[in-house]
Structures are given as C-alpha cells and as structure tokens.
Amino acid sequence: MFSLGRNIDFHYKTNKIIAIVSVVVATIGWILTGNVLSGLYIGFGSFLTWALSRELDPKHDFSAFLAVGFSLLNLFYYENLQLIVIFWFLLLMRMVSGITGKGLTTFDIFSLLGFTVYLSLNNKNSVYLLIFLLAIAVVIKAGDKKRESFISGGISLGMFIAESFFMRYLSFNSIDYMNFINMFAITILGISFVFFWFLSKDAIEDDMGNSVNIFRVLASQILYSTALLLLFFLGEISINNLVIYLAAIVGVMIYFIGSKLNRKT
Q1: Taken in order 246, 251, 256, 261, is the CA torsion positive or negative?
Q2: What would the DSSP string read from start to end of 166-220?
Q3: pTM of the complete model
Q4: Could you give the angle at the alpha carbon of 35 between the alpha carbons of 51 and 23, nearest 5°?
Q5: 205 - beta bridge partners?
Q6: How wide is the angle at C-alpha 188 spanned by C-alphas 134 and 160, nearest 5°?
Q7: φ, ψ at 205 (rounded to 5°)
Q8: Rounded CA gap, 182 and 241, in Å?
Q9: Could you tell me if 235 and 243 are in contact, meaning their C-beta atoms sit under 8 angstroms apart?
Q10: In whole angstroms, what is the distance from residue 262 CA to residue 265 CA?
Q11: CB–CB of 110/152 below 8 Å?
Q12: What's the rounded mean pLDDT across residues 187-195?
C-alpha cells in the first residue's frame, strides 16, 4: 500500500555505522545541551542528514557520512529542529525519483498530499503546497498514476490559491544579503543545480536492483534545491534545519569531486 518507505538492513556495514553514530551524537548532544530531548533531536537530525544524502546520491554510500560530519555543527548551536519537514522532503524525493523500485500507489500520492496540507496549515504557509505541485508535475511527466496525480494536483492547486490569496499564507521573507550564512546558503543552492547535472549521469540501481530513470533522479535532486530556495524566500527554515539541508549537498558535492580527482590521480 505504501511504497515510499525504505528498509534499513543492519546486515550492511554502513547502516550499522549510521545507527551507532546517531546514538553517539544524541548522547553528546544531551551532554552539551543538558537536555535529553534536545540530544535526541540532534542525534535523529544526524540520521536524517544521512538519509537525505542517500536520496541525493544513491550511488555512493560514504558521501552521506561526510554530510553527517558537516551536520555536527548543530552540536555547537541548538535552537530548533523541524524533523517532520525533513521527513516530508525524503518522501517527496522518493516519490519523484522512484528509488524504492516499487510502483507508486494511490495511497502514496494522497497520504503525501495530506501530509503537505497539514504542514501548510500548521505552519500557516502555502509554499509547501507549491513544492508538492512541482513534485506532482514530475510524476505526471513520468507517467505514474496520472489520474490520481492530476486529482491530487488539482486539490493542492486549489488549496494553494485559497491559502495564498484568501488566508494570506504566502509572503516574501526579508533577506539580509550581507549576512554570511544567507549568502553561503544561496550560493551553495545555486551551484547545486549545475552539480546535480553531473552527479545524475552515473548509472543508479533502485532498491530492487533495477536501473533508475536518470531523468527522475535528476528531477528529484533539482526539486530538493528548488524547494529549499522556495522555503528560504517564502517559508521558514530554522538555522539547525538549514545546517542539515546544506550539509547534505556539501557532503555529496565534496565526495563526488574528491572521487573524480582521485580517479584522475
């Protein structure tokens, strides 16, 4: 019924490592913040950084660990982590890329639509519906569940219009372009569009061992960066979430460039 989940097989060394790392990070986070819940959030944030990186770069196992390393910046400054939004990102990317190897189901589409509507209403921001519309457009282009996709797209478009124009749930953020963090984020996201073009050229297998459509993988990667830009300008991203989002890109980027240079050497 639900095809967007991915099993974590602890027979694989990398899965064992990330489980151990997450527990260690959670413990350190607890010690540094003095709060058990904050420690758990930081530890789970490390795990989700790894998961995001695996979606961005399914071919290379260890690029995700480099990303986790960058995400440890959250240990030194912790304020707020919106883990549910990161989980939503994972499901959206899987729906677009088809990396699970299972056929998209009606339940997948409408449960993710419901998830998106919840986020938009809970955060009082319709940008989540706009991002969902972009994802559905790719699914329709790929030919998956066209009828259900058109229906869910119509519902999300109607909700987007209602929330944006009648409920005033959409507005531009005031961005300080002299702020280093803001400029770094915009620069990395801008570079990522070009980077993903090269990254997606490598052949990738899904969880069932079959070849994944390169167009869908690239679309998933582009959706990720586009969604982050939309959230940056129209939504709300906590500094801790921003660290995780950027860490996933930077980790994958550095690993990819390093592996290419290593081959030439």
Answers
A1: positive
A2: IS---------TT-HHHHHHHHHHHHHHHHHHHHTTS--B-TTSPBPPHHHHHHH
A3: 0.94
A4: 35
A5: 211
A6: 25
A7: -105, 145
A8: 13
A9: no
A10: 5
A11: yes
A12: 96
pLDDT of 7 strictly over 90: no
Q: Measured in whole angstroms, how far is the alpha carbon of residue 107 from the centre of its chain? A: 21
| Cβ pair 187, 180 in contact under 8 A | no
In the chain, the largest separation of any two C-alpha atoms, in whole Å, equals 59
Q: Count of residues for the chain?
A: 265
| 178 CB-contact burial (10 Å; exposed 0-12 / middle 13-18 / buried 19+) | exposed
Q: If you write DSSP's letter for every residue of 19-83 in order, what string do you get?
A: HHHHHHHHHHHHHHHS-HHHHHHHHHHHHHHHHHHHHH-TT-STHHHHHHHHHGGGGT--S---H
Give backbone dihedrals phi and psi of 187, rounded to 5 degrees, phi first. Answer: -65, -50
Q: Are 156 and 252 within 8 A, CB to CB? A: no
3-state secondary structure of 145: coil
Name the DSSP class of 163. I
- What whole-number percentage of the chain has pLDDT above 70? 99
- For residue 196, what are the contacts with CB-CB under 8 A and spacing of at least 6? 56, 218, 221, 222, 225
**Amino acid present at 245:** Y
Position 261 scores a pLDDT of 83
Would you say 246 and 183 are in contact if contact means Cβ atoms under 8 Å apart?
Answer: no
